[in-house]
Records
---
Amino acid sequence: MEKKIGKGIIRLKKGDITNEKVDAIVNAANSSLMGGGGVDGAIHRRGGRKILEECKEIVKNLPGRFLPSGKAVITSGGDLDARYVIHTVGPIWRGGKDREAETLRKCYISSLELGKNKGLKELSFPSISTGAFGYPIDLAAEVAINAVADFLKDNEMIVNFVLFDDRTFNAYKEKLNRVS
Ligand code: ADP
């Protein structure tokens, strides 16, 4: 399903984000940038060692040697078909009283801004924070769709959400149907 929003398009797909042939895919990374499970593991497995080497270089120069949640950095796509990987760290769900929504929104906005500054035209996102980090899917879908829709008001871009399972896909579909 896809919908024109502002100057851009939001498209929802079901599948594996590592198959995307786009300017950049977004990784739901963890703060160490050293890889992990879920989508992070899949991206590093398919993308090869180059991505990890670049992540190591980046993390070396960060205060405290970690990437705080809500921030985003960019590496090459390594062996992936995507040209770049944007790594962002979602919030861990702690019941909703720890500014999780604000942080999750920042993940989307900072990834989109990074892509825009690189001149990228098409990005693909997974559902950040709704796996190991435990963010309730309906709430995360609302934040994700609203953040991207707000960005597209002023920016021309194609933004795909590549969602791994039916439940996640349906949650994002419901939110996209409501947005104008
Ligand atoms: P987080 O730690 O941010 O919660 P996870 O990787 O655990 O990240 O989960 C985020 C979402 O990514 C979940 O919906 C999970 O099912 C999904 N996911 C896992 N592997 C892939 C993949 N290869 N492509 C797209 N989505 C994936």
---
Amino acid sequence: MPAKLLDGTALSQQIRGELAGRVSSLKAKGVTPGLAVILVGEDPASQVYVRNKVKACEVAGMHSVLELYPATLTEAELLARVQALNADPAIHGILVQLPLPKHIDSHPVIESIAPEKDVDGFHVANAGALMTGRPLFRPCTPYGCMKMLEAAGAPIRGANAVVVGASNIVGKPMALLLLAAGATVTICNSKTRDLAAHTRNADILVAAVGRPRMLTAEMIKPGAAVVDVGMNRVPEGQPNAGKLCGDVDFAGASQVAGWISPVPGGVGPMTITMLLVNTVESTERSAR
Ligand code: NAP
């Protein structure tokens, strides 16, 4: 495999190690960083994500609260829980796991989180702050992708960066962070004509689509840095059916790319690590 690995597990361990000192300093001042995670409904993937987030908090010596509610919870009841957590001085970060059940509109729920506790960075105030170049919280997944590129020494300033996927939680903030770091950024979506013409021009390629192995070796510029955000299951009938895979065909792409992140072991652990970083930053701000 000519490509160097963007190892999210190893980088996560390093960042969490550095974070431990900041958690200790806060505790010495009598403040323990606190994260509240709310899950509504029984979505199995979401259950795994929230438990991993809460476990990571505990390992880091942080306070965490996991609130699990049945899918029958009303929007008004959820808004009331968020308000209570906004007012709780032991909580410095609030995360409402998405997607929410269909009868709950996610927008008012996200907007009800106090922006200074919005460690996911999804509140419009935080999205706007990111767009205007003064972010309070960088959304965890794109923040983790940037850390991986920086740690690897992949050139960003002046690079052609292509982000495939334009969601509010990954694609758009990813593009803004790359732009802020001096890249020339293209955002692709499902209507993009000739996707390969864009991706072949990418010095940095970020895949955030949700389609297993759709980006293949011939779509990648030799030497590019490829960050794979996708978290998919290998379809039935293919080797390793049911196992986790990314949006990039790792076997082929790793023969062409200069750097590449694996799935699992790439962006996933970094997302959780940056959630811890954001919660500690929030706590430090509140303790000033
Ligand atoms: P999403 O909200 O479904 O957005 C998908 C984006 O991909 C949309 O902008 C869509 O375009 C675009 N798209 C769909 N088909 C395309 C195609 N053929 N060519 C180009 N663009 C296409 O997904 P998301 O929430 O951003 O998540 C994307 C993936 O990342 C999923 O696999 C998710 O599980 C994973 N994820 C991983 C982490 C992690 O921590 N590792 C965190 C979050 C998400 P339109 O805008 O035109 O619809």
